[in-house]
User: Fold this.
Amino acid sequence: MRLLSISIVLFISTISVIGQSSYVNKGNPAIAIHDRLEIKTGIESPIHSSLKEYSRKDLVEYVLKVRANATNLSAQDLRDIQYILDDSNEFSNPSDSNLSQSSRPESKKEYVDSLFYTYSNSAQEKQEILGSDIRTRKPVLKHFFKTPANFYEINSDAFALKINPVVNVKFGKDVDDNEDIIFQNTRGIELRGLIDKKVYFYTNLYETQGNFNDFIEERIARYQAIPGFGSYKDFNSGVSDKFSGYDFPNSQAYVGFHVSKHVAIELGHNSHFIGNGYNSLLLSNYANNYFYLKFSTKVWKFHYENIFAELAPISSRANPLDELLPKKYMAGHYLSFKPRKNVELGLFETVMFSRENHFELQYLNPIILYRTVEAFIDSPDNVLIGLNGKWDLMNRLSLYGQVIIDEFKLSEIQDRSGWWANKYGAQLGLKYIDALGIDHLDLQAEYNIVRPYTYGQSRELENFPKLTVSNYSHYSQPLAHPLGANFKEFVMTARYPITPKLLINGRLLMADYGESTMDINYGNDVLVTSDLKPSIYNNTIGQGIATQVLQLGVDISYEFFHNYYFDLHFLYRNKDSQDNALDLQTTYFGGGIRANVSNLKIDY
Assistant:
């Protein structure tokens, strides 16, 4: 095996490769900008939008194409394009390695202070907005902030490096809680770069102390894991006993390169998201980061990805043996196809499995159906298949959806028997840009429904009664929807820039689901064995402890410098349970400052 690995590395190192880039991930403003430009202009993008890791290089190429060809762009669209050009300037100015000053007229500059300036924003000056990237007048201390997007950067043909600080400090109060202050103190650094325009890399390192709203605290206590993060320890401030919570690090890192014109390999530690919705029923970034090897193939109208990952069935906190965490593995592939420039279709398949200290080598086949392999080896593994689709309409609308199938028997569906192993779910959503004729008022509505026991399994994890090994989860967190299964959910979001620098985001969430008890699994918890089900038939969505959640959130962000924000937050959430002891109401007000980090929310 070692000889084979060395041979592969040596072979790859001899191949002449082409340039590639790091990504912007879900939550980055560039994602929303790209998606609305694709809907509005109808200009075909090289990006398959269901794969929520957009190449910076592809983003720049696309917005330059849009800027040159679209005739219906507003002044705010042009500012959006400029944001992407600034944010990925290693590709937006390939001939300007020294990042010299803009050639735009001095008379058009509006100074924020003695150092930084922007340009006048009137629609009449549309042609001047089309000019080169906005830059600082001069670097800070000769080396820093040579451009608006990067604290420090190196640009040359052989090497490009971008370094930025990461800050997310916020404080708030739940009006129903007179004791603790809800706070977060995140500090870190991120860097990305290119070597010889062939190899790309990215890494970030965060350190956080903080606590959460009561409904998230409840989930942490239950699963002994912070949603989206790894290990943690208890934190008590030396300043005030009102500042108590958790101390937890987090990091992402990957390196990748092309082995041919159309095939790329990436090795990293990250999470992934497949879909066009607010949530995903196929693969989401709700769980902690994991180690993976990814193959990406882009040919003609196809984009095909293979992901092989090493996962953990439980969290470190839930591991009382103080030993190496048990392991399980995932092999997944997703084929995206664009039959027309405004239509995207995707086929998804993944298998979760566990072996004694090794990967199941038969799952390394990148083009075989995993259900077939499962039958070949007579395995107890967990295979899921899914479909994803998107259709852009009338330069205003985008209709999207998903279907996920774990198991089903057609005869049982026809009989409407409520057979427990009919496990599937569906998503239907709509995006509406420039709603009601208002520029950049973007609305989104989404409905998700998943039957009980979907994503789950029956085979128990050794030394951990009731928990299963090959369920669709990582680090005690679902790999698809945060609610797991056995739910119906409606989500509506609104996004509107009140001014070029002031953005308001709103979201309304309504969910109905059935919770399990200590001894009975009604099908919502994907971690617990399905052997604890109450019955084989008559299983319906919402069975168990009937629960309704209503949630309204509003966030206002002022961007005072590129990717630097002042934030205000409001959240109202009401959980109404059939068991009154589980009722929970939250009314939260807060605010803070963040830099170079997205404003993603934890809803459950």
The chain has one domain: 2-595. The domain at 2-595 is CATH 2.40.160.130 (Porin). DSSP finds nine helices and 28 strands in the chain.
